[in-house]
Specification:
Elements: E1 2-5, H1 14-21, H2 27-48, E2 61-66, E3 71-76, H3 83-91, H4 98-105, H5 114-118, E4 125-133, E5 141-146, E6 151-156, E7 164-171, H6 181-192, E8 199-208, E9 211-220, H7 237-247, E10 256-262, E11 268-274, E12 288-292, E13 295-298, E14 313-317, H8 334-357, H9 359-379, H10 381-387, E15 392-394, E16 400-402, H11 403-410, E17 421-426, H12 433-441, E18 446-448, H13 454-464, E19 468-472, H14 478-481, H15 494-505, E20 514-521, E21 530-533, H16 536-546, H17 553-557, E22 560-567, H18 571-584, H19 586-608, H20 619-649, H21 651-663, H22 669-684
Parallel strand pairs: 2-8, 12-14, 17-18, 17-19, 20-22
Antiparallel strand pairs: 1-6, 2-3, 3-7, 4-5, 4-7, 5-6, 8-9, 10-11, 11-14, 12-13, 15-16, 21-22
Helix pairs in contact: 2-6, 8-9, 8-10, 9-10, 9-13, 15-20, 19-20, 21-22
């Protein structure tokens, strides 16, 4: 028997392991199973080189659990260890403390470093035993024991075992969760599903006599030759789909896949899938699984996969990805950037190829692909350069165009008087149907931009293409969406507009977070009598704020501002004017005369004192100014109050305002019900 102390000068190495190496205790099982796999792989390598001439036999790595005794055992039939090798890999970790320990192993990225991975066992164990026998001829079975202190015992085992190693964990009280079979199976499924050596955990079960009973067949928890390790030429379309269903059993079938396979300047294989995304793309992240030599490492791959591709699903496997010492997370270095750039290029090339060779199929998938491509364009400049040839725009007729095709389509007809090309769009073809129809009646083409990232994409596009602007169809009346030389004259005088403004304002909804501004425009008689529009800039800023755009919170707190545009040339508006004048009667002429006289007096006074500053006014002048201003204000208030009363009683005003609200999907609840009843009454007359 050999007694000794593990070669450390600190009081206890194990708190160091717990604090510095492993943030998640469940990783111990991954490390120990990986060690067993590594020992098995080494034996197979020795056999292939002729250095081991014995029978390989059953190479399954076995995990067994005694729940009652809280004993977990990981057994392999690999190369095993001699007493000298135990001393080298387990006992003689010669360093002076945690800092030197971490420095010594910071570049260890090889799964299966026995000494390092082995010590993770002490995170969950009161005592750990190793029973091992080397493949070398004449080797003895050795038994090593340690209770978590620097002291250990090593002796020849009382019972011989065949070639290989058993690692026996006596689980501690605070780690009893790992004495549960379901928990162990869960961890094995997570980390070991694709290890290259069979991993058995217990026996397969069958239903017999009213209960599940063990069979004599091992329950193998992994697939030893996962799809990404095979050549693409040997894989069918159905194989790719079936593998996706294995990875994501509850997901819809993906749009398509990309098989990654590179061996220079780094080794990397994998399969990335484009999933169908329905709503919030944020919840779809963390779906790519990162492996190192078929051992699962993490599904947080932001460091190695460009941000926009974290929306993808699938696997990436590379022994060259730099991991921290516990293989729990990525370390940043130049290799990561190279791998990231390669993946970006590969994805862009695949999309470009699909578009060039199968455009019709690409277009059918565009509505689902759009979010990936737009996300890539706005976050990755190199991808944006490559994507310029296959990013598509879709119009309200369901036709698809590349950026260059669409520019050629609309340049002639949709260039405004200042030389800007205007791309009209709708984010809701149904609710904005009247605006879309008005634009198309003018011969304009209208795009559908209803995606989650369209606002960001529009901003990116306008920044890259000076002289081209996106304008939503409800941002203004149709004649002002693309400003041309307009020869239409306004039928209403300024005085008549002032008369009608409070009449229409009287019928606008009173809401805390919405503001309405009434204006008059000269439009064709066949256009709507009243339209409600929203300024493109302010609406876009509020959209960005709603998506959490940086620095946009201010806009998000502002009320929604809408323009109520009255068609000054519409017959109904002329009819309303006549009704208002009739309702006001002769008093209107009297009030207008008094108001005109008061305004004339106000202007005369202003002309008289135009060369004086307000602080230089005499008291008489101050009193005069106050008198004329009050006279104008009182007369305007009296007229506005009367016009507001007339407006509230005028059903035709209410009807045309509600029609405008309805066309913007802004008429709801009781107001909608009243509109329907009023419409029936008006039809019946």
């Amino acid at each position: 028997m050999q007694n000794g102390k593990i070669g450390v000068t600190t009081e206890n190495i194990f708190p160091i392991i717990k604090k510095f190496l492993y943030s998640d205790h469940e990783i111990f099982l991954r490390e120990l199973v990986s060690n067993g796999v590594d020992a098995t792989q080494k034996l197979k390598a020795l056999a292939s080189m002729g250095e081991f001439k014995g029978e390989l036999g059953d190479l399954t790595v076995r995990v067994s659990l005694d729940t009652d005794k809280r004993i977990l055992t990981i057994s392999d039939s690999g190369i095993g260890m001699t007493a000298e090798e135990i001393d080298k890999y387990i006992n003689q970790i010669a360093f002076s403390g945690a800092e030197e320990f971490l420095e010594k192993y910071k570049n260890q990225t090889i799964i299966g470093h026995f000494g390092l991975g082995f010590y993770s066992a002490f995170m969950v164990s009161d005592k750990v035993e190793i029973v091992t026998r080397s493949y070398k001829e004449g080797s003895k079975t050795m038994h090593w024991t340690c209770d978590g202190s620097p002291e250990y015992t090593m002796e020849e085992a009382s019972t011989e075992r065949s070639r290989g190693t058993d690692v026996i964990l006596h689980l501690s009280e605070d780690s009893k969760e790992f004495a549960d079979k379901a928990r162990i199976r869960e961890i094995l499924k997570k980390y070991c599903s694709f290890l290259p050596v069979p991993i058995a955990f217990g026996k397969k079960q069958e239903w017999k006599d009213g209960k599940y009973v063990d069979t004599d067949q091992d329950d193998i928890v992994n697939a030893t030759d996962p799809l990404w390790t095979k050549k693409p030429t040997d894989i069918t379309e159905e194989d790719y789909m079936e593998f996706y269903r294995t990875l994501y059993p509850m997901a819809e079938d993906p749009l398509f896949y990309i098989h990654l396979n590179i061996d220079y300047p780094f080794n990397l294989t994998g399969i990335l899938y484009f999933p169908k995304i329905r709503n919030n793309f944020e919840i779809q992240k963390n779906k790519i699984q990162l492996y190192s030599n078929q051992v699962f490492v993490t599904d947080s791959v932001e460091g190695i996969v460009p941000e926009f591709l974290t929306l993808l699903h699938g696997v990436i496997d590379s022994p060259d990805i730099p991991l921290n010492v516990s293989r729990s997370y990525l370390q940043s270095d130049s290799n990561v950037k190279k791998i990231s750039s390669y993946i970006t290029r590969k994805v862009a090339d695949r999309l470009s190829e699909l578009f060039a060779q199968h455009r019709e199929e690409f277009q059918k998938k565009w509505d689902d692909l759009k979010i990936f491509i737009q996300y890539g364009i706005i976050t990755d400049e190199k991808f944006a350069e490559k994507a310029a040839d296959f990013v598509l725009l879709k119009n309200t007729e369901g036709k698809y165009f590349t950026l260059s095709e669409y520019a050629a389509l609309v340049k002639e007809n949709q260039t405004d008087k200042n030389g800007n090309v205007i791309y009209l769009y709708t984010n809701d073809p149904v609710s904005q149907n009247s605006f879309v129809g008005a634009a198309r009646d003018k011969g304009y083409d209208v795009l559908v931009m209803d995606g989650q990232l369209d606002t960001h994409f529009i901003g990116w596009f306008e920044n890259k293409n000076q002289g081209t602007r996106f304008v939503r169809v409800d941002a203004d009346v149709v004649d002002k969406l693309i400003e041309k030389e307009n020869n239409l004259k306004m039928a209403l005088s300024s005085a008549q507009q002032d008369l009608l403004r409070p009449v229409f304002e009287a019928q606008l909804p009173a809401e805390d977070k919405i503001r309405y501004t009434v204006s008059f425009e000269p439009m064709a008689e066949n256009q709507m009598p009243v339209m409600i529009t929203q300024n493109e800039f302010m609406r876009r800023m509020k959209d960005m704020a709603a998506m959490g755009g940086s620095g946009m919170q201010f806009y998000g707190q502002l009320p929604d501002n809408f323009n109520v545009v009255i068609n000054g040339n519409h017959p109904l508006v002329a009819e309303i004017l006549g009704e208002v004048e009739a309702s006001y009667g002769d008093k209107l002429k009297t009030t207008n005369k008094k108001l005109d006289a008061a305004i004339a007096e106000q202007r005369s006074f202003e002309e008289l004192v135009k060369d004086k500053k307000a602080e230089d006014f005499s008291q008489e002048e101050k009193d005069k100014q106050q008198e004329v201003d009050k006279k104008v204000e009182d007369l305007r208030r009296q007229r506005t109050e009367r016009l507001t009363e007339i407006g509230r009683e005028n059903k035709l005003v209410k009807q045309v305002v509600d029609l405008a609200l309805l066309s913007n999907s802004m008429l709801k609840g009781e107001n909608l019900t009243n509109f329907i009843r009023r419409s029936v009454e008006l039809i019946g007359k």
